[in-house]
TrEMBL record:
One of its GO terms (cellular component) is membrane. Keywords: Membrane, Transmembrane, Transmembrane helix. The lineage of its organism: Eukaryota, Viridiplantae, Streptophyta, Embryophyta, Tracheophyta. It is found in: Membrane. GO terms for biological process: xenobiotic detoxification by transmembrane export across the plasma membrane. This is Protein DETOXIFICATION. Belongs to the multi antimicrobial extrusion (MATE) (TC 2.A.66.1) family. Pfam families: MatE (PF01554). Its main location: membrane. The keyword NAD does not apply. GO terms for molecular function: antiporter activity; xenobiotic transmembrane transporter activity.
Length: 505
């Protein structure tokens, strides 16, 4: 696409052929990523099914452990790894292979450091949960599952950065195939470890670890032997690696906060549901609804990751208006996905809960809230996509601030006020989520559509990616690398620099 069309002029409306080409480019990436996300979702469902076959205590303990590990571990690692998105995508657009490989290795090092405190938390799950008043039998089972899941932290220190690294280079189908092969062995692994060897809960945890390990091995093998091996240098000194960690953290930490603040809010909803009248029914209904939102989230999550890569690629190539076109096309797709979600949640609201439970009270509660959840997705799809655009322009801190205000200063007061003070009950919690998603979507759309200066973002991308290219080619002396990287990589501001090369636009 970059060779087929010159960059779109700021005063011209993109042609239909340009929009269609962008749609093909975007969904050519997004479909395999969506399939991969669905496979990961299926893997989690399989683990829950095997836990359920072991008994109700094992299922409850496993569910508690899965929730704890998601909040304290996986959400953090996924969030930190997303800090790679702007650097890798813009470096790929600029053909700066040196920065690509260095950034991947730096992120692996960052995640290796991050899993040390996470491991300590996981080792002390039982103590933490007993202190919080959880049932001791369930907590003991959860602690066992958590203990055997600790090796998965190591696999994720490589798996999560590799996914961003490949997606940023439009390499999505190989990721889907690697996930497909790994997940295909997930059921046999569970059967052997749980049924044949009789390992029980530890077997379920070990099967998940081995499945992720298989994904890592397959993806790493593809990167090492099959993807630009002749152009990428994988040997770097410790000074090169450590010198860029600080600037990379300035992208990774806000990215992590933006993702975690939203992820954690759904767990807070489960806790709040436990304080409603008839908490057993409320929590069961909340579980079904959150599983449903997780299923629907696979598409906008894939779209967000791919538009982040597309925007970053075009900015790195010096094409600000094609980056803008990619953002606008992705937002249009997000609204269509949101409308589809509203439609099916309304149509199937009476039947959907029947797929999960036979409890009539739970079915009634789920049916009453399904349309509200659908409206939430109408805001969530463009909001998630907008966050991807912000990451592609190396502005994750903006998304983090918006998520903090929307979910915790808008959504939480509305949810608590309606559910408990005004006695609206279960539906009040979801009206709280709706208000949060509405505030979030409006804020992010305002930033993307009104406040984004695409020419300035292209300048910042040029400085971010061109700097280390020059260093690697010997243009700058080695001793100046870290100072320049810290000065420009994260702090370059196109609005304060008028020396923009004509070739960018």
């Amino acid at each position: 696409m970059a060779d087929k069309y010159p960059d779109i002029c700021s005063h011209k409306v993109p042609s239909a052929s340009q929009v269609l080409e962008e749609l093909r480019e975007l969904w050519g990436m997004a479909f395999p990523i969506t399939a991969m996300n669905c496979l990961v979702f299926v893997r989690a469902v399989v683990s829950v099914l095997f836990l359920g076959r072991l008994g109700s205590l094992e299922l409850a303990g496993g569910a508690l452990s899965i929730g704890f590990t998601n909040i304290t571990g996986y959400s953090v690692l996924v969030g930190l790894a997303s800090g790679l998105e702007p650097v890798c995508s813009q470096a790929y657009g600029n053909k700066n292979w040196e920065l690509l490989t260095l950034s991947l290795q730096r992120m692996v090092l960052i995640l290796l450091l991050a899993i040390i405190p996470i491991s300590l938390l996981w080792l002390n799950l039982e103590t933490i949960m007993v202190f919080m008043g959880q049932d001791k039998a369930i907590t003991s089972m959860a602690a066992t599952y958590c203990l055997y899941s600790i090796p998965d932290l190591l696999t994720n220190t490589v798996l999560q950065p590799l996914r961003v690294f490949l997606r940023s280079q439009k390499v999505t189908k190989p990721m889907m195939y690697c996930s497909m092969i790994a997940v295909a062995f997930h059921v046999p692994l569970n059967w052997v470890l749980v049924e044949v060897m009789g390992l029980g809960v530890p077997g379920v945890a070990m099967a998940s670890v081995l499945t992720n390990l298989n994904m890592v091995v397959l993806m790493a093998a593809y990167v090492w032997w099959g993807w630009r091996q002749g152009e990428m240098r994988w040997t770097a000194g410790i000074g090169d690696l450590c010198g860029g960690i600080g600037p990379l953290l300035k992208l990774a930490v806000p990215s992590c906060l933006g993702i975690c603040l939203e992820w954690w809010w759904y767990e807070i909803v489960i806790v709040m549901a436990g304080y409603l009248p008839n908490p057993t029914v409320a929590v069961a209904a909340t579980g079904i609804l959150i599983q449903t939102t997780s299923m629907m989230y696979t598409v906008p999550m894939a779209l967000a990751g791919c538009v982040s890569a597309r925007v970053g690629n075009e900015l790195g190539s010096g094409n600000p208006y094609r980056a803008k076109l990619a953002a606008m096309v992705a937002l249009g797709c997000a609204f269509v996905i949101g409308i589809v979600n509203v439609t099916w949640t309304v149509i199937l609201r009476e039947r959907w809960a029947g797929l999960f439970t036979k409890d009539e009270l739970v079915k009634i509660l789920v049916a009453s809230v399904m349309p509200i959840m659908g409206l939430c997705e109408l805001g969530n799809c463009p909001q998630t996509t907008g966050c991807g655009i912000l990451r592609g322009t190396a502005r994750p801190a903006v998304g983090a601030r918006i998520n903090l205000v929307s979910f915790y200063f808008v959504g939480t007061p509305v949810a608590v006020g309606l559910a408990f003070l005004l006695k609206v009950g279960f539906g009040g919690l979801w009206f709280g989520l709706l208000s949060a998603q509405a505030a979030c979507a409006v804020s992010i759309l305002y930033v993307v559509l009104v406040k984004t200066d695409w020419e300035a973002e292209a300048l910042k991308a040029k400085m971010l990616t061109g700097l280390e290219m020059g260093v690697c080619n010997g243009v700058k002396e080695k001793g100046h690398q870290n100072d320049e990287e810290n000065r420009l990589l994260m702090h370059g501001d196109g609005n304060n620099n008028n020396n923009i090369d004509d070739e960018i636009f």
